[in-house]
Specification:
10 helices, 75% helix
C-alpha cells in the first residue's frame, strides 16, 4: 500500500490527457502564428515600406516612407486580401493535414495564433498611417475605409481557416475554392517581391490567369461527387470562379480611380458597371470554369477507374 507522501512525490506522467491537450494547444497556436507570418512574408521581404499616400501630410520620396506590417493603400486592396487570407488558409491546411484527435481545440488555437499576427500587424500599420495623414474629413474617410477593409480581410482569413481545417470534405473544398484566387495573387506578390516589378517574366500574368482553375479543379477531383451532397461544393466553386474575378476587378478599379475619389455614388456606379462587364460573355470566366470542370471530372473518373480495378483485383 503506497503512502500519500510517496504518491505526491511522483510527477504526473507526460502522456496524461491534460498534458497532451496542452501540447496540442501549443502546437495549434504555433501553427497559427507561423501561418500568419508566412502569409505576410511576401510584403515583409520587400522592406515593408508604406506605399506613397495621396493624403500624406508631407512631401517625401518613396524610400522615406515609414515601415508598416501591411501595405496600406487603396491601390493594394487585393494584395492585402491575399496576404491576410493566405495566412489563415495555410494554418487551416496544416491542421487538416495533421488531423489531431483534438481537432476543435487545435483549430481554435491556430485561429488565435493567426489573429494575434493579424491584429498586431493591423494596429502597427494603422498607428503609423494615422500619424502621417493630413487632418480633415477625406483622410478620415480614407483611414476608416482602409480599416474596415482590413478587418473584413481578417475575418475572411478566419473563415478560410475554419473551412479548410474542418473534418468535412465539402467544407474544406469550399474553402479551397474560396482561396484559389487569393493564393494565386499571393504567389504573384512573391514573384514580384523576389525579382522586382520590372523583372517579372512576361508569362506570369498568363499563368496566373489559369492557376485558380487548376486549383479548383484539383479540389473538385479530391472532393468527388459521392455522396450526392458534395455537388454543393462543385456548384459553389464554379460560382467562385465566375464571380470573384469580376468582383476583385471591380473593387480594384473603383479604389484605383483618382477621378472619382471621394464621390461615393459615382464610385459605386462604376463598380457595378465593371462587375457587370466581368460577368458577361466578354469576361474571362468561361474558359477557366471549363478547365476546372474538365480537371475535376477527369480526376473523379480516374479515381473511379482505380477503385474499380482495386476492387476487381481484391475479388
Amino acid at each position: 500500500m503506497s503512502h500519500p507522501e510517496q504518491t505526491a512525490q511522483h510527477p504526473v506522467p507526460s502522456g496524461t490527457p491534460s498534458n497532451t491537450a496542452a501540447r496540442d494547444a501549443l502546437w495549434g497556436l504555433l501553427i497559427g502564428l507561423l501561418g500568419g507570418i508566412l502569409g505576410l512574408a511576401p510584403w515583409w521581404i520587400t522592406g515593408a515600406t508604406l506605399p506613397l499616400q495621396n493624403l500624406w501630410a508631407t512631401q517625401v520620396m518613396p524610400a522615406q516612407m515609414p515601415t508598416t506590417l501591411l501595405p496600406l493603400s487603396q491601390y493594394e486592396a487585393i494584395t492585402i486580401l491575399a496576404l491576410l487570407t493566405v495566412g489563415g488558409a495555410v494554418a487551416g491546411l496544416a491542421v487538416r493535414i495533421w488531423s489531431p484527435a483534438r481537432r476543435r481545440l487545435v483549430t481554435w488555437c491556430a485561429l488565435s495564433g493567426v489573429l494575434v499576427v493579424h491584429v498586431a500587424a493591423t494596429i502597427q500599420s494603422f498607428v503609423v498611417l494615422r500619424e502621417g495623414l493630413l487632418p480633415g474629413s477625406l483622410p478620415g474617410l480614407y483611414f476608416g475605409g482602409l480599416l474596415a477593409g482590413v478587418i473584413g480581410c481578417v475575418l475572411a482569413a478566419l473563415v478560410a481557416l475554419l473551412l479548410i481545417a474542418s473534418s468535412s470534405t465539402v467544407k474544406a473544398t469550399i474553402g479551397f475554392g474560396l482561396m484559389a484566387i487569393p493564393v494565386t495573387s499571393w504567389a504573384v506578390v512573391w514573384v514580384v517581391s523576389t525579382v522586382g516589378f520590372l523583372s517579372v517574366p512576361t508569362a506570369v500574368p498568363t499563368v496566373a490567369r489559369w492557376v485558380p482553375a487548376v486549383l479548383v479543379g484539383c479540389g473538385l477531383a479530391w472532393c468527388g461527387l459521392r455522396p450526392a451532397h458534395r455537388a454543393v461544393a462543385w456548384v459553389l466553386n464554379i460560382l467562385f470562379l465566375w464571380l470573384l474575378p469580376a468582383l476583385f476587378t471591380a473593387v480594384q478599379s473603383v479604389l484605383g480611380t483618382r477621378v472619382l475619389a471621394g464621390d461615393i455614388p459615382a464610385m459605386l456606379s462604376m463598380g457595378r458597371d465593371v462587375f457587370g462587364r466581368g460577368l458577361g460573355p466578354d469576361g474571362a470566366a468561361l474558359p477557366t470554369i471549363l478547365l476546372a470542370l474538365v480537371i475535376g471530372l477527369t480526376g473523379v473518373g480516374a479515381r473511379f477507374v482505380i477503385a474499380r480495378r482495386n476492387s476487381l483485383a481484391a475479388g
